Structures are given as structure tokens and as C-alpha cells.
Amino acid sequence: MDANFWHERWQAARIGFHQSDINAHLQQCWEHTDAEAGNEVLVPLCGKSLDMRWLAEQGHAVAGFELSPLAVKDFFAETGLTPSCKEEGPFLCWQQGPFSLYEGDFFKASELGLQFKLAYDRAALIALPPDMRPAYAEQLAQLMERGGRVLMVTVKHDARDDQTPPFSVPEAEVRALFESLFEVTLLEHTSAGAQHRRVASGECSYFDELCFLLTRR
Ligand SMILES: C[S@@+](CC[C@H](N)C(=O)[O-])C[C@H]1O[C@@H](n2cnc3c(N)ncnc32)[C@H](O)[C@@H]1O
């Protein structure tokens, strides 16, 4: 997926990945990160996710990384905040209250020299095609302190069209990508069943969600 793919999705408002509710795995599993209020949470490929607001409500600062200026603009407008903006390395950093959204390419994030104790990935790894996932794992590892924890939500499905996100990234692949860098624990595995939109439409015969805790070695 190149940058244009995502810019076009945002320009055409084809953002079916955006959830109008707070993610259930986040609410159920965040306690496994042993998060302390005040710790900043890294949110790679953040879109305009409402989950960032939930994290802020738990007392966290949030550092989101997002390619699309439209997503960043919408996030602040819909949160009722007017951000300030400054250049930070290869990014434009939009900041207000607990939120710092870095507009630019997440794969350059390590150039900022930041280190995080906490991160949250929902629909980030699964937005990337297979050839980009090892670099993503490497980038995430570079940004996490030793002992730092990542809550990661992936999906597993058997859609015939596997050329566009959300890509199926099952447990074996998460382990293959991350286990040399992180201790990997599967926290939850849920099956949406026949009522899921993609199953009901015949796109796939099942659509599962997996929630992992990754602890940086
Ligand atoms: C599937 S969406 C998920 C968004 C968000 N995590 C959520 O749960 O709603 C993936 C997002 O990553 C952004 N993105 C894709 N590649 C990126 C990159 N290299 N750096 C920063 N953002 C990127 C896209 O613009 C898109 O908003």
C-alpha cells in the first residue's frame, strides 16, 4: 500500500475501518499493559480513531502517527480542539491537550529519537501488505523501551480478495514477525460469526479478531 492509496481513501471518505465506538479489546485488555497514568501511548497509523480519546481519558498522553492530513484535521475538529503545529524532523506535529499527532510516514518515526513504554495498534499491522510488515515490526521495536508493552489487535479471515486491507494476520505470523523482538502473548481470540458484514456478504466464511500483548525484550 503506497501513500497515495491512503490519501485517496481519505479524500473519497472511504474509511470503513473507522469505528464509531471504542474498541472492545482495548477496553477489556488495556489493563494487561500495566499502564500508569501519565505514560505517553504510541499509536501508529492512528487515523482519527476515537480510541485515542479513550486512552486520554485514562490519563495518558497520546502520540499518533498518520499519513493523512485530513485524518489529523478531522480528529482535532471532531474532538473540539484547535491544535498548534510545528515541524519535528520529517513530520508536522499537531498538538493540543494530551494529543500529539505526527503527520507523516510512520516508518520515519525513529528519526525523532522518541522512546515509549506503551503502544496501541488497532488496524495498523493489518493495514500493511506482507512485504512491509517486517519493517513495521522493526520500527515498533526501535520505538519501545525495554519492558515496554504494546496492545495489538489483528484479524484473521479467509477472504478470497487478499490484495487490500484489512489483511489477515494470524497468530503464527504475529509470532514470526515479533517473537525475536518481543515476548508475545495472545490475550483474546473472538469470532464475529455469521452476523459480521464480511461473512454475511460472502466475502469470507469467518472473520476473527485477535488481541496480543507484546512486551519488548
Ligand atoms: C486501516 S487504517 C486504521 C486507522 C486507525 N488505527 C483506526 O483504528 O481507525 C490505517 C491508517 O494508517 C494510515 N497510514 C498508512 N500508512 C501509513 C504510514 N506509512 N505512516 C502513517 N500512517 C499511515 C492510513 O492513512 C490510515 O489512516
TrEMBL record:
Transmembrane segments: none
Catalytic activity: S-adenosyl-L-methionine + a thiopurine = S-adenosyl-L-homocysteine + a thiopurine S-methylether
Residues annotated for S-adenosyl-L-methionine binding in this entry: W10, L45, E66, R122
Top class in the EC scheme: transferase
Keywords, sorted A to Z: Cytoplasm, Methyltransferase, S-adenosyl-L-methionine, Transferase
Domain of life: Bacteria
GO annotation, biological process: methylation
Chief place where the protein resides: cytoplasm
EC number(s) per entry: 2.1.1.67
NCBIfam families: PRK13255.1 (NF009732), TMPT_Se_Te (TIGR03840)
Name of the featured protein: Thiopurine S-methyltransferase
Species this protein is from: Oceanimonas smirnovii
Gene: tpm
